[in-house]
Amino acid sequence: MSAKYQKIYQSLLDQIESKNIKAGEYLPSENELMKQYDASRDTIRKSLNLLLQNGYIQKVVGKGSVVLDADRIAFPVSGITSFKELKQTMSGDVKTIVHELQKFPADEKMKKELYMESGDVYKIVRIRTINNEKVILDTDYLNGNVVDGITEEIANDSLYDYIEQDLGLKISFSKKEITVIPATKEEKKLLDMLDYDLLVCVKSYSYLEDATLFEYTESKHRPDKFRFVDFARRMK
Amino acid sequence: MSAKYQKIYQSLLDQIESKNIKAGEYLPSENELMKQYDASRDTIRKSLNLLLQNGYIQKVVGKGSVVLDADRIAFPVSGITSFKELKQTMSGDVKTIVHELQKFPADEKMKKELYMESGDVYKIVRIRTINNEKVILDTDYLNGNVVDGITEEIANDSLYDYIEQDLGLKISFSKKEITVIPATKEEKKLLDMLDYDLLVCVKSYSYLEDATLFEYTESKHRPDKFRFVDFARRMK
DNA sequence: GAGTGGTCTAGACCACTTT
DNA sequence: AAGTGGTCTAGACCACTCG
Protein backbone atom coordinates (compact mmCIF):
# COMPACT_ATOMS: atom_id res chain seq x y z
CA MET A 1 0.00 0.00 0.00
CA SER A 2 3.01 2.25 -0.31
CA ALA A 3 2.66 3.02 -4.00
CA LYS A 4 1.99 6.64 -4.81
CA TYR A 5 -1.03 5.94 -6.97
CA GLN A 6 -2.59 3.89 -4.18
CA LYS A 7 -2.12 6.73 -1.73
CA ILE A 8 -3.75 9.14 -4.15
CA TYR A 9 -6.57 6.64 -4.69
CA GLN A 10 -7.11 6.42 -0.96
CA SER A 11 -6.99 10.17 -0.58
CA LEU A 12 -9.62 10.69 -3.27
CA LEU A 13 -11.71 7.83 -1.90
CA ASP A 14 -11.69 9.42 1.53
CA GLN A 15 -12.96 12.66 0.06
CA ILE A 16 -15.74 10.83 -1.75
CA GLU A 17 -16.81 8.72 1.21
CA SER A 18 -16.76 11.67 3.55
CA LYS A 19 -18.99 13.53 1.07
CA ASN A 20 -16.34 16.16 0.76
CA ILE A 21 -16.94 15.65 -2.93
CA LYS A 22 -20.56 14.71 -3.42
CA ALA A 23 -22.29 12.47 -5.92
CA GLY A 24 -22.86 14.31 -9.18
CA GLU A 25 -19.92 16.63 -8.65
CA TYR A 26 -16.72 16.48 -10.64
CA LEU A 27 -13.28 15.62 -9.37
CA PRO A 28 -10.53 18.11 -10.20
CA SER A 29 -9.22 17.49 -13.70
CA GLU A 30 -6.25 15.20 -14.25
CA ASN A 31 -4.17 18.28 -14.83
CA GLU A 32 -5.28 19.77 -11.52
CA LEU A 33 -4.62 16.52 -9.66
CA MET A 34 -1.10 16.35 -11.12
CA LYS A 35 -0.34 19.65 -9.44
CA GLN A 36 -2.17 18.85 -6.20
CA TYR A 37 -0.39 15.55 -5.68
CA ASP A 38 2.84 16.40 -7.47
CA ALA A 39 2.53 13.37 -9.70
CA SER A 40 2.70 12.56 -13.39
CA ARG A 41 -0.43 12.19 -15.43
CA ASP A 42 0.07 8.44 -15.66
CA THR A 43 0.17 8.09 -11.89
CA ILE A 44 -2.99 10.16 -11.52
CA ARG A 45 -4.69 8.07 -14.16
CA LYS A 46 -3.79 4.88 -12.31
CA SER A 47 -5.49 6.26 -9.21
CA LEU A 48 -8.56 7.29 -11.17
CA ASN A 49 -8.70 3.86 -12.78
CA LEU A 50 -9.03 2.28 -9.36
CA LEU A 51 -11.93 4.57 -8.55
CA LEU A 52 -13.42 3.75 -11.94
CA GLN A 53 -13.15 -0.01 -11.52
CA ASN A 54 -14.64 0.08 -8.09
CA GLY A 55 -17.63 2.08 -9.19
CA TYR A 56 -16.90 5.35 -7.43
CA ILE A 57 -16.55 7.59 -10.46
CA GLN A 58 -17.43 7.70 -14.13
CA LYS A 59 -15.23 9.49 -16.61
CA VAL A 60 -16.88 11.58 -19.29
CA VAL A 61 -14.72 12.70 -22.18
CA GLY A 62 -14.35 16.41 -22.55
CA LYS A 63 -15.91 16.97 -19.15
CA GLY A 64 -14.20 15.16 -16.33
CA SER A 65 -14.68 12.53 -13.64
CA VAL A 66 -18.14 12.51 -12.04
CA VAL A 67 -18.60 11.05 -8.59
CA LEU A 68 -21.27 8.34 -8.59
CA ASP A 69 -23.88 7.71 -5.95
CA ALA A 70 -22.32 4.87 -3.98
CA ASP A 71 -25.14 4.90 -1.46
CA ARG A 72 -27.71 3.89 -3.99
CA ILE A 73 -26.76 0.31 -3.44
CA ALA A 74 -24.38 0.00 -0.54
CA PHE A 75 -21.17 -1.69 -1.52
CA PRO A 76 -20.25 -4.33 0.96
CA VAL A 77 -19.35 -7.21 -1.31
CA SER A 78 -16.48 -6.33 -3.56
CA GLY A 79 -13.16 -8.08 -3.61
CA ILE A 80 -12.81 -11.31 -1.73
CA THR A 81 -14.38 -10.25 1.50
CA SER A 82 -13.86 -12.90 4.12
CA PHE A 83 -16.58 -13.48 6.64
CA LYS A 84 -14.82 -11.47 9.30
CA GLU A 85 -14.50 -8.52 6.96
CA LEU A 86 -18.09 -8.93 5.81
CA LYS A 87 -19.24 -8.97 9.40
CA GLN A 88 -18.12 -5.41 9.91
CA THR A 89 -20.54 -4.19 7.28
CA MET A 90 -23.45 -6.21 8.61
CA SER A 91 -25.91 -5.10 11.16
CA GLY A 92 -26.80 -7.33 14.06
CA ASP A 93 -24.78 -9.51 16.35
CA VAL A 94 -22.68 -11.96 14.37
CA LYS A 95 -20.96 -15.05 15.80
CA THR A 96 -19.10 -18.11 14.57
CA ILE A 97 -19.44 -21.67 15.84
CA VAL A 98 -16.74 -24.11 14.78
CA HIS A 99 -18.68 -27.31 14.18
CA GLU A 100 -15.94 -29.48 12.75
CA LEU A 101 -12.18 -29.20 12.21
CA GLN A 102 -10.10 -32.03 10.88
CA LYS A 103 -7.04 -32.75 8.82
CA PHE A 104 -6.83 -35.83 6.61
CA PRO A 105 -5.04 -37.12 3.51
CA ALA A 106 -6.63 -35.70 0.37
CA ASP A 107 -9.21 -38.02 -1.16
CA GLU A 108 -10.14 -38.08 -4.83
CA LYS A 109 -12.70 -35.31 -4.61
CA MET A 110 -10.28 -32.99 -2.83
CA LYS A 111 -7.41 -33.75 -5.18
CA LYS A 112 -9.68 -32.67 -7.98
CA GLU A 113 -11.15 -29.58 -6.32
CA LEU A 114 -7.83 -28.32 -5.02
CA TYR A 115 -5.61 -29.57 -7.84
CA MET A 116 -3.48 -31.50 -5.36
CA GLU A 117 -1.46 -34.59 -6.10
CA SER A 118 -0.82 -35.62 -2.53
CA GLY A 119 -0.76 -34.29 1.00
CA ASP A 120 -3.30 -33.36 3.63
CA VAL A 121 -6.46 -31.33 3.49
CA TYR A 122 -8.13 -29.34 6.22
CA LYS A 123 -11.88 -29.51 6.44
CA ILE A 124 -13.54 -26.81 8.50
CA VAL A 125 -17.27 -26.58 9.06
CA ARG A 126 -18.50 -23.39 10.64
CA ILE A 127 -21.93 -22.11 11.49
CA ARG A 128 -22.52 -18.36 11.43
CA THR A 129 -25.19 -16.81 13.57
CA ILE A 130 -26.84 -13.45 13.16
CA ASN A 131 -28.74 -12.28 16.22
CA ASN A 132 -28.40 -15.82 17.57
CA GLU A 133 -30.07 -17.39 14.56
CA LYS A 134 -28.02 -19.99 12.73
CA VAL A 135 -28.27 -18.84 9.14
CA ILE A 136 -25.03 -19.61 7.31
CA LEU A 137 -23.14 -22.89 6.99
CA ASP A 138 -19.58 -22.56 5.72
CA THR A 139 -17.52 -25.57 4.71
CA ASP A 140 -13.88 -24.85 3.87
CA TYR A 141 -11.32 -27.18 2.37
CA LEU A 142 -7.73 -25.99 2.52
CA ASN A 143 -4.65 -27.34 0.82
CA GLY A 144 -2.48 -28.47 3.72
CA ASN A 145 0.68 -28.17 1.61
CA VAL A 146 0.11 -24.43 1.41
CA VAL A 147 -1.62 -23.63 4.68
CA ASP A 148 -0.76 -25.43 7.91
CA GLY A 149 -1.12 -25.16 11.64
CA ILE A 150 -4.83 -24.36 11.75
CA THR A 151 -6.34 -24.63 15.21
CA GLU A 152 -9.83 -24.22 16.55
CA GLU A 153 -9.03 -20.73 17.81
CA ILE A 154 -7.93 -19.68 14.34
CA ALA A 155 -11.04 -21.16 12.77
CA ASN A 156 -13.10 -19.35 15.35
CA ASP A 157 -11.46 -16.02 14.69
CA SER A 158 -10.37 -15.46 11.10
CA LEU A 159 -8.72 -17.86 8.71
CA TYR A 160 -7.75 -15.05 6.37
CA ASP A 161 -6.03 -13.05 9.09
CA TYR A 162 -4.02 -16.15 9.97
CA ILE A 163 -3.07 -16.87 6.36
CA GLU A 164 -2.12 -13.31 5.58
CA GLN A 165 -0.64 -12.08 8.83
CA ASP A 166 0.81 -15.17 10.49
CA LEU A 167 1.79 -17.21 7.44
CA GLY A 168 2.64 -14.13 5.38
CA LEU A 169 0.83 -15.41 2.31
CA LYS A 170 -0.91 -13.03 -0.04
CA ILE A 171 -4.47 -13.76 -1.05
CA SER A 172 -5.00 -12.42 -4.51
CA PHE A 173 -8.20 -13.41 -6.28
CA SER A 174 -11.18 -15.75 -6.23
CA LYS A 175 -13.83 -17.22 -8.44
CA LYS A 176 -17.33 -17.55 -7.08
CA GLU A 177 -20.46 -19.28 -8.28
CA ILE A 178 -23.89 -18.59 -6.82
CA THR A 179 -26.72 -21.09 -7.17
CA VAL A 180 -29.75 -22.17 -5.16
CA ILE A 181 -29.94 -25.74 -3.88
CA PRO A 182 -32.35 -27.85 -1.80
CA ALA A 183 -31.35 -28.10 1.86
CA THR A 184 -30.44 -31.57 3.08
CA LYS A 185 -31.73 -32.99 6.34
CA GLU A 186 -28.29 -32.51 7.84
CA GLU A 187 -28.28 -28.86 6.87
CA LYS A 188 -31.77 -28.34 8.22
CA LYS A 189 -30.61 -29.75 11.50
CA LEU A 190 -27.57 -27.50 11.69
CA LEU A 191 -29.28 -24.26 10.71
CA ASP A 192 -32.41 -22.47 11.89
CA MET A 193 -34.25 -22.96 8.66
CA LEU A 194 -37.73 -21.76 9.62
CA ASP A 195 -39.91 -22.97 6.77
CA TYR A 196 -37.33 -22.73 4.05
CA ASP A 197 -36.34 -25.74 1.98
CA LEU A 198 -33.71 -24.01 -0.14
CA LEU A 199 -30.25 -22.63 0.48
CA VAL A 200 -28.20 -20.15 -1.50
CA CYS A 201 -24.91 -21.87 -2.24
CA VAL A 202 -21.79 -19.81 -2.89
CA LYS A 203 -18.93 -21.95 -4.13
CA SER A 204 -15.64 -20.16 -4.02
CA TYR A 205 -12.12 -20.92 -5.17
CA SER A 206 -9.43 -18.71 -3.63
CA TYR A 207 -5.93 -18.18 -4.96
CA LEU A 208 -2.66 -16.72 -3.72
CA GLU A 209 -0.58 -14.10 -5.50
CA ASP A 210 1.42 -16.76 -7.30
CA ALA A 211 -1.80 -18.31 -8.63
CA THR A 212 -1.76 -21.23 -6.16
CA LEU A 213 -5.25 -22.50 -5.39
CA PHE A 214 -5.30 -22.87 -1.64
CA GLU A 215 -8.97 -22.99 -0.67
CA TYR A 216 -12.30 -24.30 -1.83
CA THR A 217 -15.38 -23.13 0.08
CA GLU A 218 -19.07 -23.88 0.05
CA SER A 219 -21.04 -21.23 1.85
CA LYS A 220 -24.73 -22.00 2.31
CA HIS A 221 -27.06 -19.17 3.28
CA ARG A 222 -30.64 -19.16 4.44
CA PRO A 223 -32.45 -17.45 1.56
CA ASP A 224 -33.80 -14.50 3.51
CA LYS A 225 -30.34 -13.65 4.88
CA PHE A 226 -28.57 -13.66 1.56
CA ARG A 227 -27.57 -10.54 -0.34
CA PHE A 228 -24.93 -10.01 -3.00
CA VAL A 229 -24.01 -6.74 -4.64
CA ASP A 230 -22.08 -6.37 -7.85
CA PHE A 231 -20.68 -3.54 -9.88
CA ALA A 232 -19.80 -4.26 -13.48
CA ARG A 233 -18.52 -2.33 -16.45
CA ARG A 234 -19.60 -3.32 -19.91
CA MET A 235 -16.97 -4.98 -22.02
CA LYS A 236 -17.82 -5.06 -25.68
CA MET B 1 -12.58 -1.25 -30.39
CA SER B 2 -9.92 0.36 -32.54
CA ALA B 3 -7.42 1.06 -29.77
CA LYS B 4 -4.16 -0.78 -30.12
CA TYR B 5 -4.19 -2.17 -26.62
CA GLN B 6 -7.67 -3.59 -27.17
CA LYS B 7 -6.55 -5.34 -30.31
CA ILE B 8 -3.60 -6.84 -28.48
CA TYR B 9 -5.95 -7.89 -25.67
CA GLN B 10 -8.21 -9.59 -28.15
CA SER B 11 -5.29 -11.27 -29.87
CA LEU B 12 -3.96 -12.68 -26.60
CA LEU B 13 -7.46 -13.67 -25.50
CA ASP B 14 -7.98 -15.58 -28.72
CA GLN B 15 -4.78 -17.50 -28.09
CA ILE B 16 -5.88 -18.34 -24.56
CA GLU B 17 -9.39 -19.37 -25.50
CA SER B 18 -8.21 -21.47 -28.40
CA LYS B 19 -5.82 -23.21 -26.00
CA ASN B 20 -2.94 -22.05 -28.10
CA ILE B 21 -1.53 -20.98 -24.78
CA LYS B 22 -2.77 -23.37 -22.13
CA ALA B 23 -3.63 -22.89 -18.49
CA GLY B 24 -0.50 -22.97 -16.36
CA GLU B 25 1.72 -21.78 -19.17
CA TYR B 26 3.29 -18.34 -19.29
CA LEU B 27 2.60 -15.60 -21.78
CA PRO B 28 5.63 -14.12 -23.50
CA SER B 29 7.26 -11.49 -21.29
CA GLU B 30 6.26 -7.86 -21.62
CA ASN B 31 9.53 -7.27 -23.41
CA GLU B 32 8.76 -10.04 -25.90
CA LEU B 33 5.23 -8.75 -26.49
CA MET B 34 6.58 -5.26 -27.17
CA LYS B 35 8.53 -6.67 -30.07
CA GLN B 36 5.80 -9.01 -31.28
CA TYR B 37 3.17 -6.31 -31.43
CA ASP B 38 5.45 -3.36 -32.09
CA ALA B 39 4.09 -1.49 -29.11
CA SER B 40 5.41 0.35 -26.09
CA ARG B 41 5.55 -1.33 -22.73
CA ASP B 42 2.70 0.81 -21.46
CA THR B 43 0.43 -0.33 -24.25
CA ILE B 44 1.30 -3.98 -23.63
CA ARG B 45 0.65 -3.50 -19.94
CA LYS B 46 -2.78 -2.05 -20.66
CA SER B 47 -3.63 -5.17 -22.63
CA LEU B 48 -2.37 -7.44 -19.88
CA ASN B 49 -4.36 -5.47 -17.33
CA LEU B 50 -7.55 -6.29 -19.17
CA LEU B 51 -6.66 -9.98 -19.10
CA LEU B 52 -5.84 -9.60 -15.42
CA GLN B 53 -9.08 -7.90 -14.50
CA ASN B 54 -11.15 -10.43 -16.38
CA GLY B 55 -9.51 -13.35 -14.67
CA TYR B 56 -7.61 -14.82 -17.59
CA ILE B 57 -4.09 -14.38 -16.28
CA GLN B 58 -2.22 -13.83 -13.06
CA LYS B 59 1.01 -11.88 -12.98
CA VAL B 60 3.82 -13.16 -10.81
CA VAL B 61 6.72 -10.80 -10.16
CA GLY B 62 10.05 -12.01 -11.43
CA LYS B 63 8.37 -14.78 -13.40
CA GLY B 64 5.73 -13.59 -15.80
CA SER B 65 2.03 -13.85 -16.63
CA VAL B 66 0.48 -17.27 -16.03
CA VAL B 67 -2.64 -18.28 -17.88
CA LEU B 68 -5.41 -19.30 -15.49
CA ASP B 69 -7.88 -22.10 -15.89
CA ALA B 70 -10.93 -20.30 -17.22
CA ASP B 71 -12.84 -23.54 -17.69
CA ARG B 72 -12.87 -24.31 -14.02
CA ILE B 73 -15.89 -22.13 -13.66
CA ALA B 74 -17.18 -21.12 -17.04
CA PHE B 75 -17.45 -17.35 -17.36
CA PRO B 76 -20.79 -16.40 -18.77
CA VAL B 77 -21.74 -13.54 -16.49
CA SER B 78 -19.23 -10.76 -16.64
CA GLY B 79 -19.96 -7.21 -17.66
CA ILE B 80 -23.55 -6.21 -18.14
CA THR B 81 -24.71 -9.12 -20.19
CA SER B 82 -28.17 -8.47 -21.51
CA PHE B 83 -30.54 -11.35 -21.82
CA LYS B 84 -29.93 -11.76 -25.52
CA GLU B 85 -26.21 -11.95 -24.97
CA LEU B 86 -26.68 -14.31 -22.06
CA LYS B 87 -28.84 -16.54 -24.20
CA GLN B 88 -25.95 -17.36 -26.46
CA THR B 89 -24.04 -18.93 -23.61
CA MET B 90 -27.02 -20.93 -22.37
CA SER B 91 -27.95 -24.37 -23.46
CA GLY B 92 -31.52 -25.16 -24.39
CA ASP B 93 -34.11 -23.37 -26.42
CA VAL B 94 -34.64 -19.85 -25.11
CA LYS B 95 -37.55 -17.58 -25.99
CA THR B 96 -39.04 -14.28 -24.92
CA ILE B 97 -42.71 -13.46 -24.43
CA VAL B 98 -43.61 -9.79 -24.13
CA HIS B 99 -46.31 -9.78 -21.50
CA GLU B 100 -46.79 -6.05 -21.05
CA LEU B 101 -45.51 -2.90 -22.71
CA GLN B 102 -46.72 0.54 -21.75
CA LYS B 103 -45.59 4.12 -21.50
CA PHE B 104 -46.90 6.43 -18.82
CA PRO B 105 -45.95 9.57 -16.91
CA ALA B 106 -43.45 8.78 -14.17
CA ASP B 107 -45.09 8.21 -10.81
CA GLU B 108 -43.39 8.79 -7.48
CA LYS B 109 -41.73 5.38 -7.31
CA MET B 110 -40.27 5.74 -10.79
CA LYS B 111 -39.06 9.28 -10.20
CA LYS B 112 -37.16 7.94 -7.27
CA GLU B 113 -35.78 4.78 -8.87
CA LEU B 114 -34.75 6.50 -12.08
CA TYR B 115 -33.85 9.89 -10.63
CA MET B 116 -36.32 11.63 -12.94
CA GLU B 117 -38.06 14.90 -12.31
CA SER B 118 -40.65 14.58 -15.03
CA GLY B 119 -41.43 12.78 -18.26
CA ASP B 120 -42.57 9.33 -19.30
CA VAL B 121 -41.47 5.89 -18.25
CA TYR B 122 -41.64 2.66 -20.19
CA LYS B 123 -42.65 -0.44 -18.33
CA ILE B 124 -41.86 -3.72 -20.01
CA VAL B 125 -42.71 -7.10 -18.56
CA ARG B 126 -41.18 -10.08 -20.29
CA ILE B 127 -41.28 -13.77 -19.61
CA ARG B 128 -38.29 -15.87 -20.61
CA THR B 129 -38.70 -19.51 -21.40
CA ILE B 130 -36.07 -22.21 -21.45
CA ASN B 131 -37.13 -25.38 -23.23
CA ASN B 132 -40.67 -24.03 -23.14
CA GLU B 133 -40.69 -23.65 -19.38
CA LYS B 134 -41.45 -20.16 -18.11
CA VAL B 135 -38.63 -19.58 -15.65
CA ILE B 136 -37.65 -15.91 -15.67
CA LEU B 137 -39.78 -12.81 -15.23
CA ASP B 138 -38.13 -9.56 -16.25
CA THR B 139 -39.63 -6.18 -15.46
CA ASP B 140 -37.86 -3.19 -16.99
CA TYR B 141 -38.46 0.47 -16.32
CA LEU B 142 -36.83 2.85 -18.77
CA ASN B 143 -36.41 6.60 -18.59
CA GLY B 144 -38.44 7.85 -21.57
CA ASN B 145 -36.43 11.06 -21.70
CA VAL B 146 -33.37 9.05 -22.61
CA VAL B 147 -34.79 6.10 -24.51
CA ASP B 148 -37.80 6.44 -26.78
CA GLY B 149 -39.63 4.69 -29.57
CA ILE B 150 -39.80 1.23 -28.00
CA THR B 151 -42.16 -1.13 -29.76
CA GLU B 152 -43.23 -4.68 -29.08
CA GLU B 153 -40.87 -5.99 -31.75
CA ILE B 154 -37.93 -4.30 -30.06
CA ALA B 155 -38.95 -5.65 -26.66
CA ASN B 156 -39.26 -9.06 -28.22
CA ASP B 157 -35.83 -8.92 -29.80
CA SER B 158 -33.25 -6.98 -27.82
CA LEU B 159 -33.61 -3.72 -25.96
CA TYR B 160 -29.87 -3.31 -25.71
CA ASP B 161 -29.32 -3.73 -29.44
CA TYR B 162 -31.93 -1.04 -30.03
CA ILE B 163 -30.43 1.34 -27.49
CA GLU B 164 -26.87 0.87 -28.68
CA GLN B 165 -27.28 0.38 -32.40
CA ASP B 166 -30.41 2.32 -33.31
CA LEU B 167 -30.27 5.11 -30.76
CA GLY B 168 -26.46 5.23 -30.74
CA LEU B 169 -26.27 5.38 -26.96
CA LYS B 170 -23.42 3.75 -25.10
CA ILE B 171 -24.20 1.50 -22.18
CA SER B 172 -21.38 1.71 -19.73
CA PHE B 173 -21.91 0.16 -16.32
CA SER B 174 -24.46 -1.31 -13.94
CA LYS B 175 -25.05 -2.04 -10.31
CA LYS B 176 -26.75 -5.29 -9.40
CA GLU B 177 -28.19 -6.68 -6.21
CA ILE B 178 -29.08 -10.34 -5.77
CA THR B 179 -31.53 -11.47 -3.12
CA VAL B 180 -34.11 -14.20 -2.66
CA ILE B 181 -37.76 -13.28 -2.25
CA PRO B 182 -41.09 -15.07 -1.83
CA ALA B 183 -43.03 -15.46 -5.07
CA THR B 184 -46.35 -13.63 -5.23
CA LYS B 185 -49.52 -15.25 -6.53
CA GLU B 186 -49.21 -13.18 -9.66
CA GLU B 187 -45.70 -14.40 -10.27
CA LYS B 188 -46.70 -17.98 -9.64
CA LYS B 189 -49.37 -17.60 -12.28
CA LEU B 190 -46.98 -16.14 -14.85
CA LEU B 191 -44.15 -18.62 -14.36
CA ASP B 192 -43.95 -22.40 -14.25
CA MET B 193 -43.00 -22.55 -10.62
CA LEU B 194 -43.20 -26.30 -9.97
CA ASP B 195 -43.16 -26.54 -6.18
CA TYR B 196 -41.00 -23.53 -5.54
CA ASP B 197 -42.18 -20.65 -3.40
CA LEU B 198 -39.10 -18.48 -3.78
CA LEU B 199 -37.58 -16.46 -6.58
CA VAL B 200 -34.07 -15.13 -7.04
CA CYS B 201 -34.42 -11.41 -7.58
CA VAL B 202 -31.74 -9.49 -9.46
CA LYS B 203 -32.25 -5.75 -9.23
CA SER B 204 -30.18 -3.86 -11.70
CA TYR B 205 -29.47 -0.20 -12.39
CA SER B 206 -27.93 0.49 -15.79
CA TYR B 207 -26.06 3.63 -16.80
CA LEU B 208 -24.84 5.23 -19.99
CA GLU B 209 -21.33 6.45 -20.69
CA ASP B 210 -22.16 9.93 -19.40
CA ALA B 211 -23.38 8.42 -16.12
CA THR B 212 -27.08 8.84 -16.96
CA LEU B 213 -29.24 6.24 -15.27
CA PHE B 214 -31.57 4.99 -18.00
CA GLU B 215 -32.93 1.67 -16.75
CA TYR B 216 -34.07 -0.11 -13.64
CA THR B 217 -34.74 -3.84 -13.91
CA GLU B 218 -36.09 -6.53 -11.67
CA SER B 219 -35.27 -9.96 -12.98
CA LYS B 220 -36.89 -12.84 -11.12
CA HIS B 221 -35.56 -16.33 -11.65
CA ARG B 222 -36.91 -19.70 -10.69
CA PRO B 223 -34.34 -20.90 -8.13
CA ASP B 224 -33.21 -24.02 -10.00
CA LYS B 225 -32.53 -22.03 -13.16
CA PHE B 226 -30.40 -19.37 -11.54
CA ARG B 227 -26.63 -19.20 -11.72
CA PHE B 228 -24.24 -16.31 -11.25
CA VAL B 229 -20.49 -16.38 -11.65
CA ASP B 230 -18.10 -13.79 -10.34
CA PHE B 231 -14.39 -13.14 -10.53
CA ALA B 232 -12.90 -10.78 -7.97
CA ARG B 233 -9.48 -9.50 -7.08
CA ARG B 234 -8.68 -8.69 -3.49
CA MET B 235 -8.42 -5.01 -2.66
CA LYS B 236 -6.67 -4.36 0.60
C1' DG C 1 -10.05 28.10 -28.61
C1' DA C 2 -9.21 26.24 -24.20
C1' DG C 3 -9.85 22.41 -21.44
C1' DT C 4 -10.96 17.56 -20.85
C1' DG C 5 -10.00 12.61 -20.99
C1' DG C 6 -8.03 8.59 -24.38
C1' DT C 7 -4.12 6.77 -26.32
C1' DC C 8 0.73 5.95 -27.32
C1' DT C 9 5.66 6.40 -26.84
C1' DA C 10 10.48 6.19 -24.59
C1' DG C 11 13.21 6.01 -20.81
C1' DA C 12 14.27 5.17 -15.98
C1' DC C 13 14.83 2.81 -11.38
C1' DC C 14 13.22 -0.73 -8.20
C1' DA C 15 12.33 -5.51 -6.01
C1' DC C 16 11.91 -9.83 -7.18
C1' DT C 17 13.01 -14.59 -9.32
C1' DT C 18 15.90 -17.58 -11.74
C1' DT C 19 20.31 -19.56 -13.41
C1' DA D 1 24.02 -11.37 -13.66
C1' DA D 2 20.05 -11.39 -16.46
C1' DG D 3 15.29 -11.29 -16.85
C1' DT D 4 10.77 -10.37 -14.94
C1' DG D 5 6.95 -7.35 -13.58
C1' DG D 6 5.86 -2.75 -10.56
C1' DT D 7 6.19 2.00 -10.51
C1' DC D 8 7.03 6.68 -12.04
C1' DT D 9 8.13 10.36 -15.22
C1' DA D 10 7.69 13.57 -19.43
C1' DG D 11 6.07 14.53 -23.69
C1' DA D 12 3.02 14.01 -27.63
C1' DC D 13 -1.29 13.84 -30.56
C1' DC D 14 -6.18 12.91 -30.81
C1' DA D 15 -11.49 13.51 -30.28
C1' DC D 16 -14.49 15.46 -27.54
C1' DT D 17 -17.21 19.27 -24.79
C1' DC D 18 -18.04 23.86 -23.60
C1' DG D 19 -18.50 28.78 -23.79
SSE sequence of chain A, one letter per element: HHHEEHEHEEHHEHEEE
Assembly context of the chains = homodimer
* Mean of residue pLDDT values of chain A: 89
CATH architecture tag of the largest domain in chain A: 3-Layer(aba) Sandwich
The count of helical stretches of chain A stands at: 8
Most extensive interface:
A-B, 47 and 47 residues
Number of domains of chain A: 2
Domain HTH gntR-type (chains A, B): 2-70
Keywords (chains A, B): DNA-binding, Transcription, Transcription regulation
Protein name (chains A, B): Trehalose operon repressor
Pfam families (chains A, B): GntR, UTRA
Reconstruct the topology from this structure.
Two copies of one chain form a homodimer.
Chain A: H1 4-17, H2 30-37, H3 41-53, E1 57-60, E2 64-67, H4 83-87, E3 94-105, H5 108-113, E4 120-130, E5 133-143, H6 152-156, H7 159-166, E6 171-182, H8 185-190, E7 198-208, E8 213-221, E9 227-233
Helix pairs in contact in A: 1-3, 2-3
The structure holds a DNA duplex (19 and 19 nucleotides).
Keywords (chains A, B): DNA-binding, Transcription, Transcription regulation
Organism (chains A, B): Breznakia pachnodae
Protein name (chains A, B): Trehalose operon repressor
